[in-house]
Specification:
Length: 383
């Protein structure tokens, strides 16, 4: 059991302070605070590049009890700045575990705070919007509260920030690993039928695995790639990845590239999350900052073209404003929580995107058809 003396503090910009027990790395982090309603997948969440600049409050009370394993990383290391839990992480109890959560966080320099009333904290986020916070872990329990609150108020926020450059790959690489399958684990794509160029704004590994599993050889390019660099690889299709930050800020250099690929080629284009938002910008829509965003693995989304409802995984704090979509674009999916846009397609073209994460399998296979739609469009184009 942790020492009853507080060893961590979470300060909100409005002056509210939560005290708890620290785990993981010592130090301080400032970020935007969000909450995630998923009951599983904490390691995938912490390593999702879309969480750059954020600290995650987990509403599920038992975080850490399955340990950690390198097989569940969505990136090389955790990207979220920290996490908040109701209970102190317990010892791992799972046959796949290679280590426990606290040690994993410590190795990667990420801070955790447990023993927090996460119901109260979640209500505060829902009421005031995603707040700016400062999280401090000090094993001696020494806290300068005024400095912590000042640090929270000094956080720059996510609006207007291009964070894709911080999480994108440093150079072009090829990807051929496929989805995990019992009993062999991850496989390899050895006989690809299509070549996809994926622009990496913060791509999750399981997205790339999903493409490879359906017969794609994937070439991953940095977020700053030009249209000429994309086309130099002679792709059969282009994928626009997820990622963090303000889509309008990243779009300053990414949207002209996407717009050129849409207008000057007949390539199938598929976007997810940040890729969806920037495709919307390239097609003439606008994006907006959400009040507290969507973060979880139990979000119902309606496919307006089929009437079906999918249970989806979401992680976004910005959204495409559906009222700004031009007549050439069809809204295909909406959130059943708040009616916000969750999908679009360009009329008469195999150019489409969704706000949620079909590779995360919360349904578990409700949204797998989107990858199939992309590969079918590439097959139709090649004849």
């Amino acid at each position: 059991m942790p020492d009853p003396k507080p060893t961590a503090a979470l300060a909100l910009a409005d002056g509210t302070v939560f005290f708890g027990h620290g785990f993981g790395a010592e130090g301080m982090a400032t970020a935007e605070l969000c909450f995630n309603t998923a009951m599983t997948g904490y390691q995938e969440i912490m390593t999702d590049p879309s969480y750059a600049g954020q600290i995650v409050t987990f509403t599920f009370p038992h975080i850490g009890n399955t340990g950690t394993t390198t097989e569940d990383d969505e990136a090389e290391r955790p990207v979220a700045a920290g996490l908040v839990t109701r209970a102190h992480p317990t010892a791992p109890s799972n046959w796949r575990a290679m280590g426990d959560l606290a040690d994993w966080l410590r190795r990667h320099g990420r801070i955790g705070i447990g023993g927090i009333d996460t119901r109260r904290l979640t209500r505060a986020i829902r009421r005031q919007g995603a707040p700016h916070v400062a999280l401090r872990h000090d094993v001696q329990g020494h806290f300068d509260i005024a400095s912590l609150v000042a640090a929270a108020r000094g956080f720059a926020g996510l609006e207007g920030r291009d964070l894709a450059r911080d999480v994108t790959c440093a150079q072009t690489f090829r990807w051929d690993a496929t989805r995990w399958d019992w009993p062999g684990g991850y496989g390899r794509q050895t006989a690809p039928r299509h070549h996809v160029v994926a622009i990496d704004y913060g791509a999750k590994r399981n997205i790339l695995r999903s493409l490879a599993a359906l017969g794609c050889s994937v070439t991953v390019l940095p977020a700053s790639a030009t249209a000429e660099e994309v086309l130099a690889h002679h792709p059969d299709g282009v994928f626009l990845s997820n990622g963090p930050g303000d889509p309008a800020a990243t779009g300053a250099y990414a949207v002209p590239v996407i717009r050129h690929l849409v207008t000057a080629t007949d390539l199938p284009i598929f976007g997810i999350c940040l890729g969806h938002q920037m495709l919307g910008l390239a097609l003439g829509a606008r994006t907006v900052k959400m009040h507290h965003g969507h973060h979880g693995a139990n979000h119902p989304v309606k496919d307006l073209e089929t009437g079906k409802v999918e249970i989806t995984s979401m992680n976004h704090g910005f959204a495409v404003d559906s009222e700004t979509l031009p007549d050439t674009v069809v809204e295909t999916h909406v959130s059943l929580f708040d009616g916000s846009n969750c999908g679009l397609r360009l009329k008469g073209r195999p150019v489409f995107s969704v706000q949620y994460h079909p590779e995360a399998s919360p349904g578990p296979q409700d949204s797998g058809y989107l990858f199939e739609r992309f590969t079918e469009a590439m097959a139709a184009r090649s004849g």
